[in-house]
Specification:
This protein is of the alpha+beta class. The chain folds into 4 domains: 1-157, 2-Layer Sandwich (Beta Polymerase, domain 2); 158-241, Orthogonal Bundle (Hydrophobic Seed Protein), CATH 1.10.110.30; 248-451, Hypothetical protein af1432; 460-514. The protein has 25 helices and 14 strands. The strands form 5 sheets. The chain has a 6-stranded mixed sheet with strand order 4-5-6-3-2-7. Strands 1-8 form a two-stranded antiparallel sheet. The longest helix is centred in the middle third of the chain and has 16 residues, at 261-276. It is globular. The N and C termini lie far apart (61 Å). Mean pLDDT is 89; it is low at 448-462 and 519-524.
């Protein structure tokens, strides 16, 4: 899946106010009344040129950023805070909707006059970020793009070009920002810029983990993840950011795998993207996708934000990249020559926890990805090959994976496709085994009404009996045994083995008596 390229929508040297965030008009009026001279610069100008909506504005003001920021915070119903006092940079954040508008961020750089704007832009990072427009002109009749470094020409040519190697040295996060802008706009890194980045890849280790995390997430969020990941690897950045992947390079796999472990990991996010893309034309272009089960609302589901501003789709692509990260450590070769990777899922989950903690991911995001990695083989283990999973297998799968049960199904199918390699994407491939596999996954996805995958919530004992009733009927006390009995009853109810309260009590009593669940007081 390749991202749609940027394309300049207008003549390229002039912009109108309507091309920007709607609240910029009110900001222009406020600054005019305050006597503030301001320019919009950077990514907002780039995005306006290509017709991409953005709610992040970078602006210069000729006075103090704090004064202008407090005025805007009062106007917009937001909050002002300093970002970099020595450099005179502050931010206005509008976190909640204001009169129906969405969130907005305005970063302000102070003490930049109209005469200074050219020099300010020349000190930026990339040419396509080094453009500006006068806010007063914009509000009046439209503004000429101030472009001292050739950003418009580079945007037309589809290039991301750094202004100088010093710009990368000054802030090494730009080593990732360049590839990220290329990923988001289907642009190409200028050859000289790519060389500068490759020479400095090691500097990324000096950047704060939070900033590295945010750039990595933006790269994974953009379409064309496999293309972007390979680009990072070519630049020496992939294993500088995720050194845990280095050991997988060149590690051979059983003959049914097309790629070594490293290349398999790189290909899997792209397979995930293809199968979660809802498009009528995709199955015709890639016949394998016609067998992939989908559900109403799949786009909205994977677009839902989980944590750290990342969607389910973005975190799933990270899990795809990491799902076999511990195969090198778990690899064994039997006397027969058979290659095995026992326990690589749980081992990989711990590796994910360690690396995501290092990159300052939240606990929620970390556990989300770690669970997907730990259980990524589980869908294929839910039933014998060629057989559908039983109601009990479906229940246990949903119970154990809970909030990542759907996400892991698609990781598992992406894993399958990446293992088979490019042949599976071509007409003429024998899809009989894949069709059976997808049928089993569809059963795990759909199940029955009592455990619909989209609900993803357990209902203890399904209303047949509660903990107090069990304690009274069986002379039990609160504790692990009671929890095990409730879980046993819930599973039996879901799988159709019991239907009533009396059934539930009989099952619980039999479980205690048989030793399946043991009461330490030996009451029965």
């Amino acid at each position: 899946m390749t991202p749609k390229p940027f394309a300049i929508t207008g003549p390229g040297d002039e912009l109108a106010l309507a091309s920007f965030e709607p609240r910029l008009g009110a900001i222009a009026v406020r600054f005019a009344s305050d006597g503030t001279v301001a320019h919009v610069f950077g990514g907002a100008v780039r995005d306006a040129l290509v017709g991409t909506p953005t709610h992040d504005l970078d602006m210069t003001v000729d006075g103090a950023a704090r004064d202008a920021g407090n005025s805007l915070a009062e106007l917009l119903g937001g909050t002002y805070f300093d970002l970099d006092v020595p450099r005179g940079i502050g931010r206005v954040a509008v976190a909640s909707p204001n009169k129906g508008d969405g969130p907005l961020t305005v970063d302000l750089t102070g003490r930049v006059t109209a005469d200074d704007i050219d020099g300010h832009l020349r000190g930026r990072d990339f040419t396509i970020n080094a453009m500006a427009v006068s806010l007063a002109d914009l509000a009046d009749r439209g503004a000429r793009v101030i472009d001292p470094t050739g950003g418009v020409a580079d945007l037309r040519a589809g290039l991301v070009r750094a202004l100088s190697p010093q710009a990368l040295d000054d802030d090494p996060i730009r080593l990732l920002r360049g590839p990220r802008m290329a990923a988001m706009g289907a642009l190409t890194l200028d050859g000289e810029t790519a060389g500068w980045i490759k020479q400095r890849a090691g500097l990324i280790k000096d950047v704060s983990p939070e900033r590295v995390r945010d750039e990595l997430l933006k790269i994974l969020a953009a379409p064309g993840a496999t293309r972007s990941i390979r680009g990072l690897d070519d630049l020496g950045l992939l294993t500088a950011v995720l050194p845990e992947l280095e050991e997988s390079r060149g590690v051979t796999q059983p003959s049914e795998h097309h790629y070594d472990v490293f290349n398999h990991l790189v290909e899997t996010p792209g397979m995930f993207e293809m199968m979660t893309l809802v498009s009528d034309s995709v199955p015709d272009e890639t016949p394998a996708l016609a067998y992939v089960p989908r559900f109403d609302g799949i786009s909205e589901y994977f677009a839902g934000v989980v944590a750290d501003g990342a969607t389910r789709s973005t975190l799933a692509k990270l899990a795809c990249l990491l799902h076999d990260v511990s195969k090198p450590a778990a690899r064994t070769v039997e006397p027969s020559g058979r290659i095995r990777f026992f326990g690589h899922g749980p081992l990989g989950a711990q590796v994910c926890r360690d690396l995501m903690t290092r990159l300052r991911f939240s606990r929620k995001a970390t556990e989300h990805v770690a669970a997907m990695v730990e259980y990524h083989l589980r869908p294929g283990q839910a039933a014998a090959p060629g057989s559908p999973p039983s109601a009990r297998a479906i229940y246990r799968y949903r119970r154990d994976l809970d909030d990542v049960s759907i996400d892991t199904l698609y990781l598992n199918m992406a894993d399958y496709m990446a293992a088979k390699g490019p042949d599976m994407l071509r007409p003429g491939y024998d899809f009989s085994a894949w069709e059976q596999y997808c049928g089993a996954v569809e059963r795990l996805l759909d199940g029955d009404d009592s455990q619909n995958a989209r609900q993803n919530r357990r209902r203890p004992a399904a209303g047949l009996v509660n903990g107090n009733e069990l304690m009274t009927a069986l002379s039990l006390e609160p504790g692990p045994v009671l929890g095990e009995l409730l879980e046993l009853i819930e599973e039996a109810k879901v799988t159709g083995e019991i239907q009533s309260r009396s059934d539930a009590l009989r099952l619980a009593k039999a479980a205690l008596k048989s030793g399946r669940v043991t009461d330490r007081r030996k009451l029965l």
